[in-house]
Amino acid sequence: MDFVLVHGTTQSPAGWGRVAKLLTAAGHRPIAVDLLTPAGLQFEGYVQHARDQYDGERPVVVAHSGAGVLLPAIAEALDARAMVWVAAYIPDFAGGRSLRDEAPALLEPDWIGVDPAADPAKASEFLFHDCDPETERLALDSLRLFDPAVLASHPAGAAPEIPSTVIVSTRDRTLRPDWMRRAARERLGVTAIEIDAGHCPHMSRPAEISGILTGSRRSA
């Protein structure tokens, strides 16, 4: 099976490295797309940019954090068989609000305004606090700010018909876990899988994430 891995707004594709190795070892093909593009690209351009980096059929598309804004559109463009939201923002399909509109309710207050790419100490505090020292070093090396205004301001479209799995990190210091649980139920109609991790479980709990992706664990 193919897995298209979409990085969030604070990491490069390197953040998926450990999960990708585990998926490969299990006989799957992971493709970590890179969303870094020229300035001024519109929403549809990011979707096409991800599409251009994949040459297979019917993958599982996995997104982290702010890339949840793009996940439904990328999944539809790739005719995905499933979507997986890893500590990822779930858009307001019914109300049409943007990530920026929902930020006050979604984000932990102390995270607002933090640029982890410019402050490794803040990155460790908010993103990688549950990582062991070696993992933390790798995670810090993967930092890269990717925060185009078009993603924050893009209004949500219609709810996708593609099946979803939602992974909520119970020790997330950036996105509020209670908000994420509720959004999974109300916006996608699923019960989230909860794991004991911070905002980047693909770094701190790669085996657990890989197990969920390959079906070793499934949402209720």
TrEMBL record:
Origin: domain of life? Bacteria
Keyword Signal attributed: no
Please name the InterPro entries in this protein's record. AB_hydrolase_1 (IPR000073), AB_hydrolase_fold (IPR029058), Sec-Metab_Biosynth_Hydrolase (IPR052897)
Cite the SUPFAM superfamilies for this sequence. alpha/beta-Hydrolases
Q: Does the keyword Transmembrane helix apply?
A: no
**UniProt keyword terms in alphabetical order:** Hydrolase
Q: Which residues form the AB hydrolase-1 domain?
A: 3-209
User: What name has this protein been given in UniProt?
Assistant: Alpha/beta hydrolase
